[in-house]
Amino acid sequence: MFELKKFQSEQFGLIRTMVDDKTQEVVFNGNDVASALGYTKAANAIRDYCKGVIDLVTPTNGGPQKMKYLSEPDLYRLIMASKLPDAVKFQDWVCEEVLPQIHKTGKYQLYKEPESDAVILSKAILIASKQIAQQQALIAANQPKVNFADSLLSHNPSISMAQMAKLITQNGHQIGRTQLFQVLRELGYIFQRSTLPIQRFVNAGIFELHTSLITVRGRQKEVTTTKVTAKGQEYFLRYFKENYL
Q: Strand 219-228 and strand 159-160: pairing?
């Protein structure tokens, strides 16, 4: 004897299931599933994609009605053929919430019939799509770390203030070289009216001072340039992320 069980989702609406109280076989209301997966003509979708359809009498507000119910393989066939962007989310909801609630005793066997190659392939594609989406989200979330790693892989891990400003911009906060100098002066890292860092931050390994000779009007002149070390790059990237983003 089949027992009616109802499940409600804010996103997918009502899904009615029938469960055989002896075999624990689960079947899904075809109209409910087709509607949740975005099919405009449920009857056509069930006819075109499903193979194990059965008719079961279902209680409704208008009285008992005979409705079509789908086996789990047919459920996955409809998911595979659906053009709904959230078809994978529907599958997750069914597999992670609906089925566990139905089978709390642990007697449930996933399929009474062997899975066809098409069903296995459809599940593999859906799982792979979900994993790719998760990996893309992880890459986006870690992009600041990737940009920072790129800077460390350069020939010289110490970079100019202009390069530091560009690195901060790549990580989400728009800033230029002159503005960066001004911010660091206000924070007490750089001397006022100067481009040179305060010595204790050089000693701490955040900055380096690079000296070079340039020729001005035929005469050589010594110029000192402020560079940001790898430690300083990580330090300032974290600071701007925590305080400006």
A: antiparallel
Contacts of 240 (CB under 8 A, 6+ apart): 168, 171, 172, 173, 175
Beta strand 219-228 with 207-216 is antiparallel
Nearby residues of 64 by Cβ (< 8 Å), 6 or more positions away? 57, 58
Residue type at 124 in one-letter notation: A
**H or E stretch including 81?**
helix 72-81
For residue 120, name the pLDDT band (cuts at 50, 70, 90).
low
pTM of the model as a whole: 0.43
Q: Are 209 and 196 in contact (CB under 8 A)?
A: yes
Own/partner pairs, 99-105, CB within 8 angstroms, 24+ separation: 99/26, 101/7, 102/5, 102/17, 102/19, 102/26, 103/24, 103/26, 105/24
| Digit-coded pLDDT (tens) for 149-193 | 454 444 458 899 999 999 999 888 889 999 999 989 988 889 988
Bridge partners, residue 18, by sequence: 4, 27
